[in-house]
Structure formats: C-alpha cells, structure tokens
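Table S5 (text form). Sequence records supplied for joint modeling of the two-component complex.
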Amino acid sequence: MTAEAHGVSDSGRTPSEALRIEGVHKSFGKLEVLRGIDLTLAEHEVVCLIGASGSGKSTLLRCVNLLEPIAAGRILVDGEEITARGVDVDRVRRGIGIVFQSYNLFPHMTVRENVTLGPRKARGLSRGEADADAGRLLERFGLADKRDEYPDRLSGGQQQRVAIARALAMQPRLLLLDEVTSALDPELVAEVLDVIRELADGGMTMLIATHEMGFARDVAHRVCFLDAGRILEEGRPDQLFGAPREERTRQFLQRIVAAGRL
Amino acid sequence: MFVAVVVVVVASSPGWGAFKAYFLDGTIYRESFPEILDAFWLNVKLFCTAELFILPAALFVAVLRSLPGPVFFPLRALAIVYADLFRGIPTILVISILGFGMPALGLSWVPISQFFWAVVALVLVYTAYVSEVYRSGIESVHPSQAAAARSLGLSHGQALRFVVLPQAVRRVIPPLLNDFIGLQKDTALVGTLGVVEAFKQAQIDQSATFNGTPYLVAATLFVAITIPLARFTDWLVARDRSRQQAGRLA
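The corresponding structure-token record, covering 512 residues in total, follows.
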C-alpha cells in the first residue's frame, strides 16, 4: 500500500509513534474529501493542519476519532490499527480527545457535569474521583468559579476552555483540535490559544486543524498544508511559512496575509 | 366581543327557550352532579393508569426507531408499523374491538375486566402518538451532541441516555401534556363498553330525566381537569423561554 511508497514497512514502527495515518480515503457520496492522506505523529509532537475550507482538515480529524468511517487506508494509534474490523470504538475513543469548533458542550449539564460525564460513564470513576480531577483541570484553566454554571452562561472562550477540559478529563494519549477558535470573537481567541500552548509545552501529542497561522507557526513542530484532500506540502513552520515549495501553498498563504491573519 | 355576539345570537334564537329547558336545568344539574362526579373518578383512574404505561412505553418505541444501522432494521420497521397502525385506527374502534373481543374469546387466562381492556386500548393508541412526540424531540437534538458524547468514549446507549434523551424530553413536555389532555377526554369513549364512567352515567341520567343537562355536568368535570393542566403547560413553556433568554443576556 502507500506505506511502502513512503518506504516504511508495517513492522518499522518506532516506539515513540503516537499516530500513523496511511493512505486514508473518504468520500461523502460522490464528493471525495480525502484522497490518500499519509501522516505520522511522534509522541509529544504537535502538528498543525492548514488549508482552505473544504480541504479536508476537519474530516481527517473526525476520521481519526472514528466519528466518520474511512473508505480506504488505515489509521494506527500507538501501533494499534483502530480502523480494523471488530475494534471496540468506544475504547479507542476514550484514548483520543477531540475538541470541536462549535464547543458542543452539553447544555443541560453544569460545567462540572460536562467535564465528569466521560470519566464517570466511560472510565468508570466514582463521582468523587471524577469531581476531584475536574476541579484540578478547571482550576488550571481559570474556570474554578464557573464549575456550577450552565454552558449558556459562559462566554465563547470560557465554553471552549471547558470543552478542552472535558476532552482532557479522559486523559487522552492524543488530542485533536478542530478549528477551536474559529467560532470565537477575536478578543477571546488568545485565552484559548494560551491553554493549547500550555498543553503543547506539557508534551501533549496534538493534531490541530487551524486558521490561526501565527499560532501554528508558534506552537507546531510541523505544519501540513492540505489541498483538495491531499497533503500537498509539509515541513517545519519556518520552512513552510517562510519558503513554501508549492505554488498552491504560496497562493494560500498570500490570501491569508491579505486577509490580515498572518 | 366574539363571546358577546355568540351569546346574543344563541339567546335570541327561536329555539332558545327549548334549548334552555333541555340543557340548562338547575335542579337536574344539582341532582345528577354527585352521581356523575362519582363516575368521573373512573375516568381519572383510567387516564392515570394509562398514562403511567404510555410515557415509558412510548419512549421505548421512539428509542427503537432511532437505533442506527441495518442490524436494527426489523425493530425499526416494527416500531413504524405499530405507530402507523394505531394512529390510523379510530380510538373508539380499538376500544370496542379489545373491550368486546378479548373477553369474548373465552380463554381462561385472558382477563375479562373491561376496565383492563379499556386501559390496554388507550395505552396502545396513545403510545403510538406519544412515541412520535418523543421521536421529534430526539431528532431535534443536534447530531453534534451525540458526536460529542461518543467522542468521550460513551456507547450509543449511554450517549442517548445521558445526553440526547434529557434534552429531547425537556423540549417535548408541552406536546406531551397536550396528548395527556387528549387522553383524558378520550376516556369518555370507554362508555361504549358499558363501563359506567362520567359520559355513560350522563347518558343514563339523560334517559331517566329526558333532559340533557347531565351532559353539561360531564362537560364541566372534564373542563375542570383540563384547564389547570393547560395553564400548567403554558407556565412550563414560559419558564423555559425566560430561562433561555436569561442565558443569552449573561
């Protein structure tokens, strides 16, 4: 398969490999959204996916979390093929956190209940243990005083930080962030990016789809430019932003600069 | 204004005198009231017993219909056929068929109580309606909510129970109460079995006095129960709305 094309054999997994995506294809009806994605993340690595809307960034993240079935290829997490038949998807998802663009907090639950639902029901923690964990997370993200509020009482930035805390409460090995600042007012973006930066410094393995180029340049170890369902170019941030090889990457970055986002 | 016009038109109609004598006899009203009130307790028992089974059974049917994948197709199909069938047959036919038919089978293990079969008929019919109410509620919860729950590693059942259903049920409380009011009124149909509930008692009193006022007594009793429930529903809706607005302002 495509693994061979990249000169990597199945047994050649390095011990520190957190995520391997091999030749992943995905279509919605006739529309081919992912057309052969290959990507590997080492443990503690932060990779940013950039690209125009519709280039497949969000779909790729949803495929990694098994929220979307893939048409071809395979995905391995910590060496286990999670896209194989008969894999317990609930167990796989417990180890992979995802944060969505639109937060998707549970509106009928308080902040604390949002953060403790996964640990209590999927990890089997007692209410006391889960509450203690949630308390520490919320404290760390400056949300300790909001723990008994309902989500609709919070600002967008606060809601998104709760969503990140909810994902982290499952103690995932891998965190997927899907344009987590795109729905936020500009003045609220920084508080969310600061939290993500702190996670990166703490060694969290993250795959981040983002439109925040300054942030990507700052926090990513590697940046991938997605175009029409393929990774057209990838490299270190200084290389990709400073001297892009591909014409389409250059065009995309120019449009971003023109829009004042870099 | 409209009421005033109606009152004037009715009161000035040529048959008003006869109408008044037939339906608005104060003495008969007072005399038949205790008997019909007594019989009305049977209606209360009927709709309370039925509702007790309808609420969980309808939720069960709605959940069956929401099960994903081809594996559950037979269960989904069964739920659809059931809902279509019992929403299609007039309630009075279901009550008659079960109430007269089942005891007539003469099987020793089949209950012969008409109260029992009346409750079964009402449960069958209203579970079909109420399952559709629940289903619309389940479908009104955005799929991203279930996705968020599943992404935490919750199973389909857990996502449904802890995330989707609590939001869905909250949203459909007003239409649920609306169907409950419908159920209360439809208990009058059980009178066709010969069970002496409020409407049947009113009929008995009417044929004894050759006066229609007992019907008015029965009507008063039904209204006395449905109006508070309707106001309660309004109050719930208003409370929900003001909560959401408070949330948006904050």
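Note: The interface with chain B takes residues 65, 67, 90-91, 93-94, 96-98, 100, 102, 104-108, 117-118, 121-123, 150, 152-153, 166-167, 170 of chain A (CB under 8 Å).
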